[in-house]
Amino acid sequence: MDRVADEATWKPTLQKDAGPLYQAIADALAADIASGKLSAGVRLPPQRSLAHALGIDFTTVSRAYAEARRRGLVDAFVGQGTFVRRRVSSAAPASSGGLIDMSMNLPPAFDEPALAERLWSGFRSLEESGGLDLLLRYQEPGGAHADRSAGADWLSGRIPDISADRVVVCPGAQGALLAVAGLLAGPGEVICTESLTYAGFRSLAAHLRIQLAGIAMDGEGLLPDAFEAACRKHSPKALYCTPTLHNPTTATMSPARREAIIAIAREHNVPIIEDDAYGALVPGVAPLAALAPDIVYHIAGLAKSLSPALRIAYLVVPDVRAAVRVSGSIRATAGMASPITAALATRWIEDGTAASVCKAIAREATARRAIAAAQLPPNCYRMQDHGYHLWLLLPSPWTRSEFASRLRSAGIGVVGSDAFALGAAPEAVRIGLGGAATRQDLTRSLHIATDLLNEAPALSSLVV
To answer: Both 175 and 48 in a single domain?
Structure first.
């Protein structure tokens, strides 16, 4: 039988300016459940008792309890009362025994139940804000005005003076890349990019039959002299680059390097496609779009800083004319971004949930970088503050294929440099620190990787 809480002592602490009172009560209930103050099976005070204790009307408490049921926080039984719902955890066990796939660069999962409840609450609130129009109407291919405005708000701290009419809502960063690359270059034409570049862009270019010219890199990313030489040789239609937390090497351009790349692009009339997948996680770094808004197509996906499941990216274009042209590309290739996920992203941005999630991801990433630094031998990897992937440089005689194969046989997935290389691939692998479900799984996986690095490949071979 469910146990009964002390109805005289449970009284929610309500936050000022937390919105409607009934929602504040439901929020307080979610917070007390998350903190353990109210455990599963506890019976809540009767609605009239709580209304009297709070000095508010009965209907407000009744609405709050109904909201809590809608959120899945409680169950109500006629004649018995309202009880905190029993939940089955969906978290993966610390040692699941299956493949720990660190080949995908996923944001690390944070363990903050109250924040998770805010995310799910955003789903449930869509009915109130969107109604059937959200479900039964098409939208403009570039996104509804409210969603474009939310994108502008999300980016305003990084790109000054941004307006909604320069923001296009895209079906993920890959959808944005497809629209822009197809707009700027045609079959047989050239786009410059880093010599190690995002694997998804390589696939997209092959699909569009666009030629990619790889530009030499150093610890900051693109080398200006190499970019200028490529401009003279290829007359490229665009430059595609990731100047902040480069994928896969983690390189981040200095302000001086950014200015140099922009100057060369201006001299040769080369528009820039800036993939800013991690920009929301890195404070104080001005994106290229903030320095040269007239020539940069800035892609800010939400997958790395908020949720990969949204499949929403905000594309900032140089002017309204470009926005119309890109919207036409989206119409031709995808029709539109999902209005439901776009509306959900808007809700999370407007109510502050998105910013809170971004901070939670950053906190978990900090913890995971510390684990990596403690586990791996020094000077064998590149890793940057604010990121959650690393570039592991393999000592001789290890090769990337052999090292990845050995890790996979131990139940750990990583991705070799071949996936990113436009020329000769270095002996290196990318490791996504967010792929492991828990910090314990990450520690165990990196410990295995370190053991491999410290022995010769022949010693770990199982070939007979």
So the answer is: no
DSSP 111-133: --HHHHHHHHHHHHHHHHHHHHH
SS3 (DSSP) at 254:
coil
- Give the single-character DSSP code of 103: S
Largest CA-CA distance found in the chain, in angstroms, rounded: 81
* DSSP secondary structure letters along 71-93: TTSEEEETTTEEEEPP----PPP
Nearest to 348 by CA among 358, 337, 336: 358
Handedness of CA 387, 393, 394, 400 (dihedral sign): positive
Residue 32 DSSP symbol: H
Q: Range with the lowest mean pLDDT among 129-133, 168-172, 321-325?
A: 129-133
Q: Are residues 319 and 175 in the same domain?
A: yes
91 pLDDT more than 80: no
Task: Name the pLDDT band for 88 (thresholds 50, 70, 90).
Answer: very low
Q: How far is CA 144 from CA 61, 119, 156, 308, 379, in A?
A: 35, 22, 18, 21, 48
Q: 436 vs 366, 416, 440, CA distance in Å? A: 15, 18, 8
Residue 345 and residue 401 in one domain: no
Are residues 319 and 245 part of one domain? Answer: yes
For residues 247 and 105, the answer to whether their CB atoms sit within 8 Å is yes
Cα–Cα dist 295/275, whole Å: 14
315: helix, strand or coil: strand
The count of domains in the chain is 3
The share of the chain scoring above pLDDT 90, in percent, equals: 69
Which residue from 454, 453, 403, 409 is spatially nearest to 429, judged by alpha carbons? 403
- Residue 458: which of 397, 408, 377, 380 has the closest Cα? 397
Domain of 455? 100-114+362-460
Q: Which of 69, 68, 48 is nearest to 59 (CA)?
A: 48
Q: Could you tell me if 370 and 347 lie in one domain?
A: no
Residue 90 within any structural domain of the chain: no
* Same domain (yes/no): 280, 339: yes
DSSP 447: H
pTM for the model: 0.80
Distance CA 293, CA 279 (A): 16
